[in-house]
Specification:
- The protein is built from 22 helices and 14 strands.
- The protein is an alpha/beta fold and about 475 residues long.
- The chain folds into three domains: about 250 residues, P-loop containing nucleotide triphosphate hydrolases (Rossmann fold, 3-Layer(aba) Sandwich), CATH 3.40.50; about 130 residues, Orthogonal Bundle (Helicase, Ruva Protein, domain 3); about 100 residues.
- A five-stranded parallel β-sheet has the order 4-7-8-1-9, with helices on one face. A three-stranded antiparallel β-sheet has the order 12-14-13.
- It is elongated.
Length: about 475
């Protein structure tokens, strides 16, 4: 069908166009995608065996959908990607504010126009990218915003009584006829406003003031919500939940690998940053583990959740910390260091909701503890366990390093050191390079120095070395000497 040639109702009929509901559109196009082994939810990672199959079953069932999960779980993105399952173009009566189907006119305007012009009724073609509406539920949302109200200005201009249907101003939901409409954070919508949605979901009609309207609205509703027990956030009233066909539970990434892939995909880095800063896989793993530590932390409200945006913004900060250092030191390229994780603390403190105990500790201290916890969790995956080794243990592979510090040596690692100074300071630590070469023999030159610093921070975390915070970095020294001094 060449839509460029179809400009009125008569031409549309002659072309044999068949109307179908939006839910039928979604269902038919999903069936085609599944048969062709195509992924309509491209870019959604980690939901392949959980959320997406549930969502596809709901679409096949022609259900309205509620996506239930904590913040930062790609609920809105899933809803927006459903647009890809719509037909590319659908016909609309020209000038209709309710996007009337020319073969099934809904509004008074469209019915009058077709009665007047018949097959000459003009139409235009509506692209699927425009068939999406979204509203964030806030306490100030009214029934008039969503459903509609009488418009006194329209009544005055048209010289009509308020009892005339043509005086109505339709809200965002009727204007989403034949489209996907999303209400984000549904529990935040006042209960009396939620009640106004009952008939729309069940019978497809709306009530505006005292008008006897039965508009069979054709809308694919998608709601997003946090769990009901989220503190002071309200809830979805039971009769409304009963009218939503499928409630689908979302979740956070289940592994570091999945989380790392999401972060890489979503992080907004400039070409200059990508060219200047080399990322080390071990550093990425530490960064992602911070999010996992936060979701288990006793200082952070688990009902609030820890958004995937924590890892994304922390990744951007980590790269920027290394970039800033290279700009100051004059290095043309550099590699992420463990000391750069100081730069991700602002990304952490703004993404977690602390409980009372966390407030007492302070957001900065909690963030530092999360970084330390991530290091402790991952350290045994790279090097021998530290927690069961004593300083005097002959089998202790860390003895040469600890003994070097015990002889009165110390090392400063400063955030603005050039790569040359940084590597020189690490090379001075006796036994450090040999340890990394033994347990990480395949490490590249850049990775090797990251691991060397990683070991020093690990020894400090397990109380084998002393680590003091300096104005511009860290000092590592012997633990017992520092205690005596």
């Amino acid at each position: 069908m060449d839509i460029k040639k179809i400009k009125n109702l008569g031409q549309l009929k002659a072309a044999g166009y068949q109307s179908k509901s939006i839910k039928e559109e979604l269902r038919e196009n999903l069936i085609q995608a599944l048969r062709a082994d195509e992924n309509p939810f491209e870019g959604i990672i980690g939901y392949e065996n959980s959320v997406i199959p549930d969502l596809e079953r709901a679409i096949l069932s022609k259900h309205n959908i509620n996506l239930l999960g904590l913040r930062g779980q790609a609920k809105t993105r899933l809803a927006r990607l459903m647009v890809n399952l719509l037909d590319e173009y659908v016909p609309v009566v020209d000038g209709s504010e309710l996007n009337d189907d020319p073969l099934q006119p809904l509004s008074r305007y469209a019915r009058d126009l077709i009665a007047e012009k018949g097959d000459e009724t003009p139409i235009h073609w509506w692209h699927r990218d425009e068939r999406y509406g979204e509203k964030l539920a806030t306490p100030d949302v009214s029934v008039a915003d969503l459903i509609g109200d009488v418009d006194p200005i329209k009544a005055a201009n048209l010289k009509l009584p308020y009892s005339d249907e043509r005086t109505l101003h339709f809200g965002i939901i009727p204007r989403s006829h034949r489209a996907i409409f999303v209400i984000n954070e549904l529990p935040d919508l006042q209960a009396r406003i939620q009640v106004a949605l009952f008939n729309i979901l069940q019978e497809g009609d709306i009530q505006i003031r005292g008008f006897k309207l039965r508009l069979p609205l054709d809308i694919q509703f998608i709601f997003t919500a946090n769990p009901e027990d989220y503190t002071n956030r309200g809830s979805i009233v039971t009769p409304l939940k009963d009218r939503i066909g499928s409630q689908i539970l979302t979740h956070y990434p289940e592994s570091i690998e999945i989380s790392r892939t999401i972060t890489r995909q979503e992080a907004r880095l400039s070409k200059d940053q990508r060219d200047m800063v080399k990322m080390v896989e071990a550093a990425e793993n530490v960064l992602e583990q911070i999010g996992f530590e936060a979701r288990e932390s006793e200082f952070i409200d688990d009902k609030s959740g820890v958004s995937a945006r924590l890892s994304i913004t922390a990744f951007e900060n980590l790269i920027s910390a290394a970039e800033r250092r290279a700009l100051l030191s004059g290095d043309k390229t550099t590699t992420v260091r463990f000391i750069d994780f100081v730069g991700v603390i602002p990304a952490i403190t703004g993404k977690v909701e602390l409980v009372y105990e966390g407030e007492q500790e302070g957001a900065y201290i909690v963030a530092e503890n999360l970084i330390g916890g991530a290091l402790r969790t991952l350290f045994p995956g790279y090097f021998p366990k530290l927690d069961k080794l004593s300083r005097e243990d002959e089998r202790n592979p860390y003895s040469p390093i600890i003994n070097w510090f015990g002889e009165g040596n110390s090392v400063d690692l400063l955030g603005e050191d050039s790569d040359k100074e940084y590597r020189k300071n690490l090379d001075n630590v006796k036994g450090l390079g040999a340890l990394v070469d033994k347990y990480q023999p395949k490490a590249s030159k850049e990775e090797r120095y990251f691991y060397m610093e990683f070991v020093l921070h690990g020894l400090a975390e397990y109380s084998k070395l002393n680590k003091d915070r300096l104005e511009r970095g860290f000092n590592f020294s012997d633990l017992f000497s520092s205690m005596l001094s």
